[in-house]
Protein backbone atom coordinates (compact mmCIF):
# COMPACT_ATOMS: atom_id res chain seq x y z
CA UNK A 1 0.00 0.00 0.00
CA UNK A 2 1.34 3.47 -0.85
CA UNK A 3 2.32 5.73 2.04
CA UNK A 4 -0.22 8.32 0.89
CA UNK A 5 -3.14 5.96 1.56
CA UNK A 6 -4.39 3.94 4.50
CA UNK A 7 -6.70 1.00 5.08
CA UNK A 8 -9.71 1.59 7.34
CA UNK A 9 -12.22 -0.91 8.73
CA UNK A 10 -15.82 0.34 8.98
CA UNK A 11 -18.80 -0.98 10.95
CA UNK A 12 -22.41 -0.13 10.08
CA UNK A 13 -25.04 0.53 12.74
CA UNK A 14 -28.34 -1.29 12.33
CA UNK A 15 -27.11 -4.07 10.06
CA UNK A 16 -23.87 -5.05 11.81
CA UNK A 17 -21.80 -5.38 8.63
CA UNK A 18 -18.05 -4.69 8.70
CA UNK A 19 -15.87 -3.97 5.66
CA UNK A 20 -12.51 -2.42 4.75
CA UNK A 21 -11.52 0.25 2.25
CA UNK A 22 -8.48 2.25 1.22
CA UNK A 23 -8.41 6.04 1.17
CA UNK A 24 -5.91 8.89 0.89
CA UNK A 25 -4.62 10.09 4.25
CA UNK A 26 -5.28 13.76 3.46
CA UNK A 27 -8.75 13.19 1.94
CA UNK A 28 -11.81 15.02 3.23
CA UNK A 29 -14.30 13.06 5.35
CA UNK A 30 -16.75 13.82 2.52
CA UNK A 31 -14.68 11.54 0.24
CA UNK A 32 -14.86 8.77 2.84
CA UNK A 33 -18.66 9.22 2.97
CA UNK A 34 -18.81 8.80 -0.82
CA UNK A 35 -16.68 5.64 -0.75
CA UNK A 36 -18.80 4.08 2.00
CA UNK A 37 -22.04 5.06 0.20
CA UNK A 38 -20.75 3.34 -2.93
CA UNK A 39 -20.12 0.12 -0.99
CA UNK A 40 -23.53 0.20 0.73
CA UNK A 41 -25.52 1.06 -2.43
CA UNK A 42 -27.25 -1.63 -4.47
CA UNK A 43 -28.88 -1.73 -7.89
CA UNK A 44 -32.25 -1.25 -6.22
CA UNK A 45 -31.26 1.46 -3.75
CA UNK A 46 -28.68 4.23 -3.84
CA UNK A 47 -27.37 5.46 -0.48
CA UNK A 48 -26.78 9.24 -0.62
CA UNK A 49 -23.38 10.04 0.98
CA UNK A 50 -24.81 13.06 2.83
CA UNK A 51 -27.12 10.80 4.84
CA UNK A 52 -24.21 8.92 6.34
CA UNK A 53 -23.01 10.13 9.74
CA UNK A 54 -19.54 8.86 10.60
CA UNK A 55 -17.91 8.49 14.01
CA UNK A 56 -14.34 7.70 15.09
CA UNK A 57 -14.41 4.25 16.74
CA UNK A 58 -11.85 5.25 19.34
CA UNK A 59 -11.87 6.51 22.93
CA UNK A 60 -9.13 7.98 25.06
CA UNK A 61 -7.81 6.08 28.06
CA UNK A 62 -5.40 8.49 29.67
CA UNK A 63 -2.86 9.41 27.00
CA UNK A 64 -3.63 6.32 24.89
CA UNK A 65 -6.26 5.86 22.20
CA UNK A 66 -8.21 2.61 22.37
CA UNK A 67 -9.87 1.45 19.15
CA UNK A 68 -13.08 -0.58 19.13
CA UNK A 69 -12.20 -4.27 18.87
CA UNK A 70 -13.45 -7.72 19.76
CA UNK A 71 -16.24 -9.93 18.49
CA UNK A 72 -19.53 -9.97 20.40
CA UNK A 73 -19.08 -6.50 21.90
CA UNK A 74 -18.65 -5.04 18.39
CA UNK A 75 -21.71 -6.92 17.14
CA UNK A 76 -23.78 -5.77 20.14
CA UNK A 77 -22.72 -2.14 19.55
CA UNK A 78 -23.59 -2.22 15.85
CA UNK A 79 -27.00 -3.80 16.51
CA UNK A 80 -27.86 -1.22 19.18
CA UNK A 81 -28.52 2.52 19.22
CA UNK A 82 -25.93 4.99 17.99
CA UNK A 83 -23.31 5.76 20.66
CA UNK A 84 -22.92 9.55 20.50
CA UNK A 85 -19.96 9.53 22.91
CA UNK A 86 -17.73 8.72 19.93
CA UNK A 87 -16.21 11.69 18.03
CA UNK A 88 -18.35 12.73 15.05
CA UNK A 89 -16.46 13.10 11.76
CA UNK A 90 -17.62 16.32 10.10
CA UNK A 91 -17.71 16.13 6.29
CA UNK A 92 -15.50 19.20 5.77
CA UNK A 93 -12.68 17.93 8.07
CA UNK A 94 -9.51 16.28 6.74
CA UNK A 95 -8.89 12.68 7.77
CA UNK A 96 -5.37 13.62 8.92
CA UNK A 97 -6.75 16.32 11.22
CA UNK A 98 -5.43 15.75 14.75
CA UNK A 99 -8.98 15.28 16.12
CA UNK A 100 -9.42 12.36 13.70
CA UNK A 101 -6.57 10.07 12.57
CA UNK A 102 -3.77 12.65 12.64
CA UNK A 103 -0.84 12.88 10.21
CA UNK A 104 1.10 9.96 11.75
CA UNK A 105 -1.69 7.39 11.97
CA UNK A 106 -0.69 3.78 11.24
CA UNK A 107 -3.47 1.13 11.18
CA UNK A 108 -2.81 -1.59 13.75
CA UNK A 109 -2.32 -5.18 12.66
CA UNK A 110 -5.08 -6.48 14.93
CA UNK A 111 -8.68 -6.47 13.76
CA UNK A 112 -10.12 -3.21 15.08
CA UNK A 113 -12.91 -0.95 13.87
CA UNK A 114 -11.83 2.57 12.84
CA UNK A 115 -15.09 4.14 11.64
CA UNK A 116 -18.70 3.71 12.78
CA UNK A 117 -21.35 4.39 10.14
CA UNK A 118 -24.88 5.60 10.94
CA UNK A 119 -27.35 5.24 8.04
CA UNK A 120 -30.29 7.63 8.35
CA UNK A 121 -32.39 5.33 6.15
CA UNK A 122 -32.26 2.66 8.86
CA UNK A 123 -33.32 5.13 11.55
CA UNK A 124 -36.11 6.46 9.38
CA UNK A 125 -37.50 3.00 8.70
CA UNK A 126 -37.56 2.27 12.45
CA UNK A 127 -39.26 5.58 13.23
CA UNK A 128 -41.88 5.22 10.50
CA UNK A 129 -42.66 1.65 11.52
CA UNK A 130 -43.33 2.62 15.14
CA UNK A 131 -45.14 5.91 14.43
CA UNK A 132 -46.97 5.31 11.17
CA UNK A 133 -50.27 6.24 12.80
CA UNK A 134 -48.95 9.77 13.48
CA UNK A 135 -48.71 10.71 9.83
CA UNK A 136 -51.51 11.05 7.34
CA UNK A 137 -49.77 10.28 4.06
CA UNK A 138 -52.08 10.38 1.07
CA UNK A 139 -51.63 7.44 -1.26
CA UNK A 140 -52.29 8.49 -4.82
CA UNK A 141 -51.72 7.03 -8.25
CA UNK A 142 -48.23 7.91 -9.46
CA UNK A 143 -48.04 9.02 -13.08
CA UNK A 144 -44.27 8.72 -13.67
CA UNK A 145 -40.91 8.59 -11.89
CA UNK A 146 -38.04 11.00 -12.38
CA UNK A 147 -34.48 11.63 -11.22
CA UNK A 148 -32.94 14.71 -9.63
CA UNK A 149 -31.25 15.55 -12.93
CA UNK A 150 -34.60 15.46 -14.73
CA UNK A 151 -36.10 17.91 -12.22
CA UNK A 152 -34.06 20.64 -13.89
CA UNK A 153 -36.45 20.38 -16.86
CA UNK A 154 -39.26 21.42 -14.49
CA UNK A 155 -37.48 24.15 -12.55
CA UNK A 156 -34.42 25.63 -14.31
CA UNK A 157 -34.73 29.42 -14.54
CA UNK A 158 -34.91 30.84 -18.07
CA UNK A 159 -33.42 34.27 -17.37
CA UNK A 160 -31.11 36.54 -19.34
CA UNK A 161 -30.52 38.81 -16.33
CA UNK A 162 -30.83 38.22 -12.61
CA UNK A 163 -34.03 39.36 -10.88
CA UNK A 164 -33.88 42.51 -8.75
CA UNK A 165 -33.54 41.96 -4.97
CA UNK A 166 -37.19 42.93 -4.37
CA UNK A 167 -38.28 40.14 -6.76
CA UNK A 168 -36.38 37.37 -4.94
CA UNK A 169 -38.97 36.68 -2.23
CA UNK A 170 -41.60 35.66 -4.77
CA UNK A 171 -39.11 33.53 -6.69
CA UNK A 172 -37.89 31.66 -3.60
CA UNK A 173 -41.41 31.04 -2.27
CA UNK A 174 -42.72 29.73 -5.58
CA UNK A 175 -44.49 26.34 -5.23
CA UNK A 176 -42.66 23.44 -6.87
CA UNK A 177 -44.18 22.75 -10.33
CA UNK A 178 -44.98 19.08 -9.60
CA UNK A 179 -46.31 16.96 -6.75
CA UNK A 180 -44.58 14.43 -4.49
CA UNK A 181 -45.94 12.27 -1.68
CA UNK A 182 -44.26 13.32 1.57
CA UNK A 183 -44.64 11.89 5.07
CA UNK A 184 -46.62 15.01 6.09
CA UNK A 185 -49.45 15.59 3.61
CA UNK A 186 -50.34 19.00 5.08
CA UNK A 187 -46.82 20.26 4.38
CA UNK A 188 -46.85 18.63 0.95
CA UNK A 189 -50.05 20.47 -0.02
CA UNK A 190 -48.28 23.78 0.65
CA UNK A 191 -44.97 22.87 -1.02
CA UNK A 192 -46.19 21.63 -4.40
CA UNK A 193 -48.39 23.13 -7.09
CA UNK A 194 -51.86 21.53 -6.88
CA UNK A 195 -52.04 21.38 -10.69
CA UNK A 196 -48.57 19.90 -11.20
CA UNK A 197 -47.99 16.32 -12.40
CA UNK A 198 -47.75 13.68 -9.69
CA UNK A 199 -44.27 12.14 -9.83
CA UNK A 200 -41.92 10.00 -7.78
CA UNK A 201 -38.36 11.16 -7.09
CA UNK A 202 -36.89 8.99 -4.36
CA UNK A 203 -33.86 11.22 -3.74
CA UNK A 204 -35.78 14.47 -3.33
CA UNK A 205 -38.42 12.74 -1.20
CA UNK A 206 -35.64 11.34 0.98
CA UNK A 207 -34.07 14.78 1.60
CA UNK A 208 -37.40 16.48 2.32
CA UNK A 209 -38.59 13.70 4.62
CA UNK A 210 -35.20 13.84 6.36
CA UNK A 211 -35.83 17.45 7.38
CA UNK A 212 -39.46 16.75 8.33
CA UNK A 213 -38.41 13.84 10.56
CA UNK A 214 -35.72 15.93 12.26
CA UNK A 215 -38.20 18.74 12.92
CA UNK A 216 -40.54 16.31 14.72
CA UNK A 217 -38.30 13.83 16.53
CA UNK A 218 -35.05 15.69 17.20
CA UNK A 219 -35.95 19.24 18.14
CA UNK A 220 -33.12 20.73 20.24
CA UNK A 221 -33.41 22.19 23.71
CA UNK A 222 -33.85 25.96 24.06
CA UNK A 223 -30.27 26.22 25.32
CA UNK A 224 -28.78 24.09 22.49
CA UNK A 225 -25.46 25.30 21.10
CA UNK A 226 -24.84 26.95 17.75
CA UNK A 227 -23.25 23.72 16.49
CA UNK A 228 -26.37 21.71 17.43
CA UNK A 229 -28.59 23.88 15.24
CA UNK A 230 -26.36 23.29 12.20
CA UNK A 231 -27.89 19.81 11.82
CA UNK A 232 -31.22 21.30 10.68
CA UNK A 233 -29.72 23.77 8.23
CA UNK A 234 -27.42 21.08 6.82
CA UNK A 235 -30.54 18.99 6.17
CA UNK A 236 -32.12 21.87 4.21
CA UNK A 237 -28.88 22.70 2.37
CA UNK A 238 -28.63 19.06 1.25
CA UNK A 239 -31.59 19.68 -1.07
CA UNK A 240 -29.89 22.22 -3.39
CA UNK A 241 -26.49 20.55 -3.07
CA UNK A 242 -27.86 17.19 -4.30
CA UNK A 243 -29.59 18.96 -7.20
CA UNK A 244 -26.36 20.74 -8.17
CA UNK A 245 -24.30 17.54 -8.09
CA UNK A 246 -26.77 15.74 -10.35
CA UNK A 247 -26.52 18.69 -12.76
CA UNK A 248 -22.72 18.50 -12.71
CA UNK A 249 -22.62 21.95 -11.08
CA UNK A 250 -19.93 21.12 -8.56
CA UNK A 251 -20.18 23.69 -5.80
CA UNK A 252 -17.94 23.71 -2.77
CA UNK A 253 -19.21 24.39 0.74
CA UNK A 254 -17.32 25.09 3.94
CA UNK A 255 -18.49 25.59 7.49
CA UNK A 256 -16.73 26.96 10.59
CA UNK A 257 -17.50 25.30 13.90
CA UNK A 258 -18.13 27.40 16.98
CA UNK A 259 -15.05 27.74 19.20
CA UNK A 260 -14.72 26.94 22.90
CA UNK A 261 -16.76 30.02 23.81
CA UNK A 262 -19.69 28.71 21.75
CA UNK A 263 -19.48 31.38 19.06
CA UNK A 264 -17.77 32.17 15.76
CA UNK A 265 -18.38 35.93 16.10
CA UNK A 266 -14.75 36.84 16.73
CA UNK A 267 -13.50 35.10 13.60
CA UNK A 268 -12.96 36.77 10.24
CA UNK A 269 -14.45 33.80 8.40
CA UNK A 270 -18.20 33.36 7.80
CA UNK A 271 -19.91 30.46 9.55
CA UNK A 272 -20.89 29.03 6.15
CA UNK A 273 -19.81 29.72 2.57
CA UNK A 274 -20.92 28.29 -0.77
CA UNK A 275 -18.75 28.86 -3.83
CA UNK A 276 -18.36 27.72 -7.41
CA UNK A 277 -14.89 27.81 -8.99
CA UNK A 278 -13.78 30.46 -6.50
CA UNK A 279 -16.91 32.60 -6.97
CA UNK A 280 -18.58 33.10 -3.59
CA UNK A 281 -22.36 32.83 -4.09
CA UNK A 282 -23.75 32.65 -0.56
CA UNK A 283 -22.55 33.13 2.99
CA UNK A 284 -24.27 32.39 6.27
CA UNK A 285 -24.07 33.31 9.94
CA UNK A 286 -25.62 30.94 12.47
CA UNK A 287 -26.34 31.47 16.17
CA UNK A 288 -28.14 29.66 18.93
CA UNK A 289 -31.65 30.70 19.96
CA UNK A 290 -30.10 32.57 22.90
CA UNK A 291 -28.74 35.21 20.47
CA UNK A 292 -30.86 37.61 18.43
CA UNK A 293 -31.38 37.25 14.69
CA UNK A 294 -30.31 40.90 14.35
CA UNK A 295 -26.88 40.04 15.76
CA UNK A 296 -26.47 37.15 13.32
CA UNK A 297 -27.52 39.33 10.38
CA UNK A 298 -25.10 42.09 11.40
CA UNK A 299 -22.19 39.61 11.26
CA UNK A 300 -22.94 38.92 7.59
CA UNK A 301 -21.70 42.37 6.63
CA UNK A 302 -19.26 43.21 9.44
CA UNK A 303 -17.17 40.18 8.51
CA UNK A 304 -17.59 40.98 4.82
CA UNK A 305 -16.15 44.53 5.15
CA UNK A 306 -16.36 45.73 1.52
CA UNK A 307 -17.38 44.26 -1.82
CA UNK A 308 -14.49 42.36 -3.38
CA UNK A 309 -14.70 41.53 -7.11
CA UNK A 310 -12.13 38.75 -6.68
CA UNK A 311 -14.58 36.93 -4.40
CA UNK A 312 -17.95 37.99 -5.85
CA UNK A 313 -17.18 38.71 -9.50
CA UNK A 314 -19.53 41.08 -11.31
CA UNK A 315 -22.64 39.90 -9.48
CA UNK A 316 -25.16 42.63 -8.59
CA UNK A 317 -25.59 40.88 -5.22
CA UNK A 318 -24.81 37.70 -3.35
CA UNK A 319 -27.19 35.81 -1.08
CA UNK A 320 -26.82 35.40 2.64
CA UNK A 321 -28.70 33.83 5.49
CA UNK A 322 -28.74 34.48 9.23
CA UNK A 323 -30.16 32.20 11.91
CA UNK A 324 -31.09 32.37 15.57
CA UNK A 325 -32.04 28.81 16.45
CA UNK A 326 -35.00 27.99 14.19
CA UNK A 327 -35.50 31.63 13.12
CA UNK A 328 -34.16 32.23 9.62
CA UNK A 329 -33.58 35.35 7.52
CA UNK A 330 -32.59 35.18 3.86
CA UNK A 331 -30.94 38.39 2.61
CA UNK A 332 -29.44 39.96 -0.49
CA UNK A 333 -26.10 41.73 -0.02
CA UNK A 334 -25.89 44.19 -2.89
CA UNK A 335 -22.75 45.34 -4.68
CA UNK A 336 -21.50 48.61 -3.26
CA UNK A 337 -18.47 50.90 -3.30
CA UNK A 338 -19.01 51.58 0.39
CA UNK A 339 -19.88 49.39 3.39
CA UNK A 340 -21.97 46.33 2.53
CA UNK A 341 -25.59 46.19 3.66
CA UNK A 342 -28.00 43.28 3.86
CA UNK A 343 -31.58 43.60 2.59
CA UNK A 344 -33.97 41.09 4.17
CA UNK A 345 -35.83 39.01 1.58
CA UNK A 346 -37.54 36.46 3.83
CA UNK A 347 -37.96 36.16 7.59
CA UNK A 348 -39.60 33.04 9.10
CA UNK A 349 -39.24 30.09 11.49
CA UNK A 350 -38.25 26.79 9.85
CA UNK A 351 -40.26 24.73 12.37
CA UNK A 352 -43.39 26.86 12.17
CA UNK A 353 -43.25 27.10 8.36
CA UNK A 354 -41.75 23.79 7.20
CA UNK A 355 -43.31 24.14 3.76
CA UNK A 356 -41.72 27.58 3.35
CA UNK A 357 -38.32 26.19 4.33
CA UNK A 358 -38.55 23.34 1.77
CA UNK A 359 -39.65 25.70 -1.01
CA UNK A 360 -36.90 28.23 -0.32
CA UNK A 361 -34.05 25.71 -0.26
CA UNK A 362 -35.33 23.91 -3.37
CA UNK A 363 -35.61 27.16 -5.33
CA UNK A 364 -32.20 28.31 -4.07
CA UNK A 365 -30.63 25.60 -6.22
CA UNK A 366 -31.82 27.22 -9.44
CA UNK A 367 -31.27 30.85 -8.39
CA UNK A 368 -27.66 30.30 -7.28
CA UNK A 369 -26.96 28.25 -10.42
CA UNK A 370 -28.20 31.12 -12.57
CA UNK A 371 -26.14 33.63 -10.56
CA UNK A 372 -22.96 31.64 -11.29
CA UNK A 373 -23.74 31.29 -14.99
CA UNK A 374 -24.65 34.93 -15.64
CA UNK A 375 -21.73 36.60 -13.89
CA UNK A 376 -18.42 37.57 -15.46
CA UNK A 377 -15.07 37.16 -13.74
CA UNK A 378 -12.99 40.22 -14.58
CA UNK A 379 -10.56 39.40 -11.76
CA UNK A 380 -9.64 35.91 -10.66
CA UNK A 381 -7.18 34.35 -8.22
CA UNK A 382 -5.65 30.91 -7.81
CA UNK A 383 -6.60 30.99 -4.13
CA UNK A 384 -10.07 29.76 -3.19
CA UNK A 385 -11.83 32.17 -0.78
CA UNK A 386 -11.58 31.12 2.89
CA UNK A 387 -9.94 27.77 2.03
CA UNK A 388 -6.33 27.47 3.30
CA UNK A 389 -3.55 26.87 0.77
CA UNK A 390 -0.89 25.03 2.79
CA UNK A 391 2.56 23.59 2.32
CA UNK A 392 5.37 22.65 4.72
CA UNK A 393 6.48 26.26 5.22
CA UNK A 394 3.33 28.37 5.32
CA UNK A 395 -0.45 28.66 5.17
CA UNK A 396 -2.20 31.32 3.05
CA UNK A 397 -5.91 32.14 3.24
CA UNK A 398 -7.77 34.57 0.98
CA UNK A 399 -10.18 36.53 3.19
CA UNK A 400 -12.38 39.58 2.67
CA UNK A 401 -10.07 42.44 1.63
CA UNK A 402 -6.75 40.85 2.61
CA UNK A 403 -4.61 37.70 2.61
CA UNK A 404 -3.69 36.03 5.90
CA UNK A 405 -0.29 34.34 5.89
CA UNK A 406 0.81 32.07 8.74
CA UNK A 407 4.40 30.82 9.19
CA UNK A 408 5.06 28.08 11.72
CA UNK A 409 8.30 28.42 13.67
CA UNK A 410 9.04 24.70 13.37
CA UNK A 411 8.33 24.73 9.63
CA UNK A 412 10.40 27.75 8.64
CA UNK A 413 13.82 26.39 9.55
CA UNK A 414 14.21 27.85 13.01
CA UNK A 415 13.77 30.88 15.21
CA UNK A 416 16.21 33.02 13.19
CA UNK A 417 14.16 32.60 9.98
CA UNK A 418 10.94 33.59 11.76
CA UNK A 419 12.63 36.65 13.26
CA UNK A 420 13.98 37.59 9.82
CA UNK A 421 10.51 37.32 8.24
CA UNK A 422 9.04 39.31 11.11
CA UNK A 423 11.60 42.04 10.48
CA UNK A 424 10.70 42.13 6.76
CA UNK A 425 7.00 42.50 7.48
CA UNK A 426 7.64 45.13 10.14
CA UNK A 427 9.59 47.09 7.52
CA UNK A 428 6.66 46.83 5.09
CA UNK A 429 4.33 48.00 7.84
CA UNK A 430 6.59 50.99 8.46
CA UNK A 431 6.65 51.90 4.76
CA UNK A 432 2.86 52.01 4.67
CA UNK A 433 2.77 54.30 7.71
CA UNK A 434 5.43 56.72 6.39
CA UNK A 435 4.52 56.97 2.70
CA UNK A 436 1.10 57.52 1.09
CA UNK A 437 2.20 55.60 -2.03
CA UNK A 438 3.82 52.18 -2.23
CA UNK A 439 3.98 49.50 -4.93
CA UNK A 440 4.26 46.75 -2.30
CA UNK A 441 1.64 44.84 -0.40
CA UNK A 442 1.01 46.61 2.89
CA UNK A 443 0.80 44.95 6.28
CA UNK A 444 -2.55 45.54 7.95
CA UNK A 445 -1.76 43.48 11.05
CA UNK A 446 1.18 41.47 12.38
CA UNK A 447 1.22 39.21 15.44
CA UNK A 448 3.28 36.41 16.95
CA UNK A 449 1.17 33.79 18.70
CA UNK A 450 2.08 31.99 21.93
CA UNK A 451 2.97 28.82 20.03
CA UNK A 452 5.45 30.75 17.86
CA UNK A 453 3.28 31.20 14.78
CA UNK A 454 3.83 34.43 12.84
CA UNK A 455 0.48 35.67 11.43
CA UNK A 456 0.41 38.53 8.91
CA UNK A 457 -2.55 40.20 7.18
CA UNK A 458 -1.58 41.62 3.78
CA UNK A 459 -3.49 43.96 1.45
CA UNK A 460 -4.38 44.69 -1.27
CA UNK A 461 -4.98 41.19 -2.57
UniProtKB/TrEMBL annotation:
Cellular component terms per the entry's GO annotation: extracellular region; host cell
Subcellular location, principal: host cell
Residue ranges constituting the Crinkler effector protein N-terminal domain according to the UniProt record: 6-117
Coiled coil: none
Manganese as UniProt keyword: no
Subcellular location, record wording: Host cell; Secreted
Xref: InterPro entries: Crinkler_N (IPR045379)
Entry keywords, A to Z: Secreted
Matching Pfam families: Crinkler
The protein's name: Crinkler effector protein N-terminal domain-containing protein
Amino acid sequence: MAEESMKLRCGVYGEGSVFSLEIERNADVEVLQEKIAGILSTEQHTVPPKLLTLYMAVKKEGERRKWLSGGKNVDDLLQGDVDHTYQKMFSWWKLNKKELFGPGFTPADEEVIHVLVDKFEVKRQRVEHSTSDKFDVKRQRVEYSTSLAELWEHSELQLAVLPAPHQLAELLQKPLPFRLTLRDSVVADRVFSPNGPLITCSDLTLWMDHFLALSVFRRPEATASENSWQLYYDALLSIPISLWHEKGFLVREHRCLADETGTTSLRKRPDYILQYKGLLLMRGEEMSSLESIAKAQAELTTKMRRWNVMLYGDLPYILGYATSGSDLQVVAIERSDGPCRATVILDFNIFEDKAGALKVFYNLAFLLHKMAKLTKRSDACDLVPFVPDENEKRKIVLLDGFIERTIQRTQSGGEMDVERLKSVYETLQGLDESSPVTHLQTVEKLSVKRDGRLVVELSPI
